[in-house]
């Protein structure tokens, strides 16, 4: 696309940044025109976040230069970035839940103004841009979409000429995404440039004017977003043809494997989610997808399903019609229920322990009460070294050395290890939360294939995921969790992405549940 | 602003060089300070560093002094590794000594040394009970264990003071706050060496250390219990995922560390004092916190750290006795030593980067 020299707002040349041996950005060139929506596309770990953090002054580049309005500047802190008209909305919101909207905005302002004036300003801006929020409401009471609006208003207070948005839609429902896009387009037409980071292809085609694709720290292409296709973008981004999942037609089983009945659990801390009247069931040979935006009770649900926390009543969870609500996590493992929590490091594994020790973490009970008392006493991680080696080999876990620390593996490889560890126990029922979250496409495809294979071999799978595409690709049945309430269960052929989106946003769409 | 960036790899050479450099820096700054204060710097250094090693009986005194530090430090290691912050080993030490003393004084005529097993067990129970208070408050009511364990130190100090002035005071002590002497069966004897006699104060209690260090090494590295403690300390969520019960681990490590502090109390009193008095500890419980961390929370490390700290403490005593250097000055010197040892250890793992801006 041609750009007149005059129109360029921000121009970065040959930006380099490395962390230790890891090169995050290598000679990246990018120029953003005034009033342009410029998308930055790339897989996880391609260097998108590093680049925008450099623009916002959070990180300093090792080399390279940045010009704003043809003036060369060095952005050494977010303060300086804001003074130069750059605002940023982070992927993880930086708001204090215990303060009101106006207080949150007030403390972030560089020049101090009176509280009343801030409230007026917020009301004015939110009317002008249709970013409706109540300035006097506590942030902890806001929905995720509202929190994001607060962040955007906070940026707009500074009259930015460039607004950076880091994966803003990963936490939004389809409806909220539409609204956001409307606002962003209006902002752009009023002259504010937008740098929009995402790995979602449809969004980029719908929203952006130009797209720059990053791959392993290098910018490999800048193309006109209006003249490209999702397939082309995907192939450029991944660099190889994406392998299709192999799906065989399966015979439906009617045998209920796992059931949850009338489960309630009050929240255990102020910002937690209470689970209300949860009912679900999954048959053998089936994948039940639980969709929902992060933070709507998935973590709490997982704790109960895994057995980390016991139910109040033994009858609230049934395996093969047998009540198991009061069994603990290891008893459930012995019964053939394997779970994977969404937090990969620090929950599913311990980062500063070796893979061998991490295998022992969920295998230790297998070695006790089998041999003499002295071997029971000396039950240690060495016992699981054979299993550990097998898991690594069978699941294509790429390790930098034999038996490395868990922290030495990339996210995708660690997740493959975690999945392999669960599958090696040959579970009847598998309950996995966000198994491909933040994982590169290659590993994600491998993991999804494993889940399909598992259900096709007659096992019951519950997949909790915020990735709607994944839910629709894998599931036989779908339900949605919203603010701790689980929707009815729908057959995948009887529900559309829009319906699921509405349910995710809390609108209870009346539909006939499948019998 | 200063930021610490983790090094990719800890260099093997620096593991040896860093402690040596730390000592060199300590000596350098020590020389400076002693010179400024008007003491003969070389002689002071000699007293602190060399004199404790100058005679074989002095070396054995280092072991005697290190003995309670290592025992308490080993217990504290279990707590700190599992993120339980027991600061009250001093109190547990006192209560262990007190309960054992009560048992010992209840059998004034006992002579068999098997009785020691009972008093040591009593010491363990006494210390463990005192640690049970923060344990139960933390697990049941979520009360901070740092606060409770620390406050209980002062309760224990005042309690032993009351006991030796009141119920257990020896009527023949001419009004001094002292209990009756322990019976023969409750005393830990000095070790006789054929041909030499006794080596300073070296007593049989030291055998407990030689037993404890390997056992605790096996426990930490080779058993499920040690693994649980390790996981709980590194990732509490992962401990839940593994099905480890956080509360029972917390209670267990507090009971073990309290118990070991109590045993250290029994050994100290039975070997070196022989009766109860208001002051039985001289700060061992607090010094052992430093020992545990200086030993990098590993059993063998704690053995060496205990010996280092004991050496410097004895050296400081020597400097005070022979040269009249006040304890505060040698305390300052200890501080410098710790500062450089910990700096050396930190710089092995991290590099420092100065960046501009706020």
Q: In percent, how much strand structure appears in the residues of chain A?
A: 15-25%
> Which segments of chain A are poorly predicted (pLDDT under 50) over 5 or more consecutive residues?
509-515
The Cα radius of gyration of chain B reads 22 Å
Structural class determined from secondary elements of chain A: alpha/beta
CATH architecture of the largest domain in chain B: Orthogonal Bundle
Question: What's the CATH topology label of the largest domain in chain B?
Answer: ABC transporter involved in vitamin B12 uptake, BtuC
Oligomer category: heterodimer
The mean pLDDT of chain A is 85
The number of domains of chain B is 2
How does this structure look, described?
- The complex is a heterodimer of chains A (515) and B (358).
- Chain A has helices at residues 48-55, 78-83, 101-108, 115-128, 144-156, 174-189, 201-207, 230-238, 298-306, 329-335, 355-363, 373-377, 385-394, 411-423, 441-456, 468-474, 497-504; strands spanning 8-19, 22-33, 37-41, 63-68, 71-73, 86-89, 162-166, 193-198, 210-215, 218-224, 256-265, 275-283, 287-291, 317-319, 322-323, 337-340, 429-433, 460-464, 477-482, 485-486, 490-491.
- Chain A has 515 residues and is α/β, with parallel strands linked by helices.
- Chain A has 2 domains: 5-238, Rossmann fold, CATH 3.40.50; 256-345 and 426-504, P-loop containing nucleotide triphosphate hydrolases (Rossmann fold).
- In chain A, the strands form 4 sheets. In chain A, strands 13, 16, 17, 18, 19, 20 and 21 form a 7-stranded mixed β-sheet that branches. Chain A has a 6-stranded mixed β-sheet with strand order 6-7-8-3-9-10, sandwiched between helices. Chain A has a 4-stranded antiparallel β-sheet with strand order 2-1-4-5, covered by helices on one side.
- In chain A, a hairpin with a 2-residue loop joins β19 and β20.
- The radius of gyration of chain A is 25 Å and the shape is globular.
- Residues 509-515 of chain A have low confidence and may be disordered.
- Chain B is mainly alpha-helical and 358 residues long.
- Chain B has 2 domains: 1-39 and 325-358, no CATH class; 56-309, ABC transporter involved in vitamin B12 uptake, BtuC (Orthogonal Bundle).
- Chain B is built from 13 helices and 4 strands.
- In chain B, the strands form 2 sheets. Chain B has a two-stranded antiparallel ribbon with strand order 1-4. In chain B, strands 2-3 form a two-stranded antiparallel sheet.
- In chain B, a hairpin with a 3-residue loop joins β2 and β3.
- In chain B, α3 crosses α11 (284-294).
- Chain B starts with a strand and ends with a strand.
């Amino acid at each position: 696309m041609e750009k007149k020299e005059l129109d360029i707002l921000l121009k970065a040349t040959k930006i380099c940044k490395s962390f230790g041996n890891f090169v995050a950005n290598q000679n990246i060139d990018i120029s953003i025109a005034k009033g342009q929506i410029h998308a930055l596309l790339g897989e996880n770990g391609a260097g998108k976040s590093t680049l925008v953090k450099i623009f916002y002054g959070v990180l300093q580049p090792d080399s390279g230069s940045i010009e704003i309005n043809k003036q060369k500047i060095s952005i050494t802190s977010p303060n300086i970035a804001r003074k130069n008209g750059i605002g940023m909305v982070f992927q993880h919101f930086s708001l204090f839940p215990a303060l009101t909207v106006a207080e949150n905005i007030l403390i972030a302002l560089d020049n101090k103004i009176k509280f009343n004036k801030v409230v007026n300003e917020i009301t004015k801006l939110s009317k002008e841009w249709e970013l409706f929020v109540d300035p006097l409401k506590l942030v902890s009471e806001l929905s995720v979409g509202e929190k994001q609006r607060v962040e955007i208003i906070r940026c707009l207070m500074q009259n930015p000429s460039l607004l950076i948005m880091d994966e803003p839609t990963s936490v939004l429902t389809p409806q909220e995404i539409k609204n956001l896009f409307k606002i962003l387009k209006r902002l752009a037409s009023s002259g504010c440039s937008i740098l929009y980071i995402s790995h979602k292809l449809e969004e980029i085609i719908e929203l952006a004017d130009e797209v720059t694709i990053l791959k392993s720290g290098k910018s490999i292409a800048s193309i006109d977003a209006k003249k490209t296709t999702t397939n082309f973008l995907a192939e450029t981004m991944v660099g190889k043809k994406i392998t299709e999942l192999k799906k065989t037609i399966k015979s439906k089983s009617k045998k209920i494997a796992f059931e949850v009945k009338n489960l309630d659990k009050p929240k255990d801390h102020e910002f937690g989610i209470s689970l209300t009247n949860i009912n679900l069931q999954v048959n053998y040979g089936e994948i039940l997808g639980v969709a929902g935006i992060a933070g709507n009770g998935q973590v709490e649900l997982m704790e109960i399903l895994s057995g980390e926390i016991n139910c109040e009543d033994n009858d609230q969870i049934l395996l093969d019609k047998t009540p198991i609500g009061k069994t603990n996590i290891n008893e459930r493992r012995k019964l053939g229920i394997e779970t994977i929590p969404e937090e990969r490091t620090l929950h599913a594994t311990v980062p500063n322990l070796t893979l061998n020790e991490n295998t022992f973490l969920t295998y230790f009970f297998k070695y006790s009460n089998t041999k003499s008392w002295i071997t029971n006493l000396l039950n240690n991680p060495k016992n699981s070294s054979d299993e550990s080696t097998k898991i690594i080999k069978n699941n294509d876990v790429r390790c930098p050395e034999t038996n490395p620390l868990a922290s030495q593996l990339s996210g995708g490889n660690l997740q493959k290890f975690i999945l392999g560890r669960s599958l090696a126990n040959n579970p009847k029922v598998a309950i996995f939360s966000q198994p491909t979250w933040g994982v590169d496409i290659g590993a994600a495809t491998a993991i999804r294939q494993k889940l399909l294979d598992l259900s096709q071999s007659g096992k019951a799978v519950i997949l909790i995921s915020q990735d709607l595409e994944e839910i629709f690709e894998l599931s036989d049945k779908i339900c949605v969790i919203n603010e701790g309430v689980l929707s009815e269960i729908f057959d995948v052929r009887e529900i559309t992405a829009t319906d699921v989106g509405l349910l995710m946003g809390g609108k209870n769409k009346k539909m006939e549940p499948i019998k | 602003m200063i930021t610490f960036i983790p090094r990719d790899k800890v260099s093997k050479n620096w593991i040896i060089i860093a402690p040596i450099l730390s000592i060199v820096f300590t000596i350098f700054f020590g020389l400076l300070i002693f010179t400024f204060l008007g003491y003969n710097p070389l002689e002071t250094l000699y007293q602190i560093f060399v004199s404790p090693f100058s005679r074989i009986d002095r070396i054995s005194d280092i072991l005697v002094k290190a003995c309670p530090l290592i025992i308490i430090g080993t217990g504290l290691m279990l707590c700190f590794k599992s993120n339980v912050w027991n600061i009250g080993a001093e109190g547990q030490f006192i209560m262990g000594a007190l309960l054992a003393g009560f048992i010992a004084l209840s059998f004034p005529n006992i002579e068999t040394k098997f009785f020691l097993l009972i008093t040591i067990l009593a010491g363990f129970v006494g210390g463990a009970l005192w640690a049970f208070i923060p344990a139960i408050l933390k697990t049941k009511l979520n009360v901070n264990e740092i606060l409770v364990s620390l406050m209980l130190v002062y309760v224990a100090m005042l309690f032993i003071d009351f006991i030796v002035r009141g119920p257990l005071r020896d009527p023949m002590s001419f009004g001094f706050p002292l209990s009756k002497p322990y019976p023969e069966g409750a005393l830990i004897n000095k070790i006789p060496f054929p041909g030499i006699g006794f080596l300073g104060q070296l007593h049989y209690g030291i055998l407990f250390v030689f037993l404890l260090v390997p056992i605790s090494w096996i426990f930490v590295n080779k058993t499920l219990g040690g693994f649980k403690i390790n996981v709980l300390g590194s990732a509490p969520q992962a401990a839940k995922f593994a099905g480890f019960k956080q509360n029972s681990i917390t209670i267990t490590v507090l009971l073990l560390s309290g118990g070991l502090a109590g045993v250290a109390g029994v050994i100290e009193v039975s070997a070196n004092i022989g009766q109860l008095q208001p002051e039985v500890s001289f700060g061992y419980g607090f010094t052992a916190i430093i020992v545990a961390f200086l030993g990098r929370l590993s059993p063998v490390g704690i053995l060496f750290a205990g010996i280092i700290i004991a050496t410097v403490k004895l050296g400081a005593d020597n400097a005070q006795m022979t040269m009249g250097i006040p304890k505060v000055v040698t305390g300052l010197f200890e501080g410098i030593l710790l500062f450089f040892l910990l700096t050396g250890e930190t710089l092995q793992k991290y590099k420092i980067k100065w960046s501009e801006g706020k």
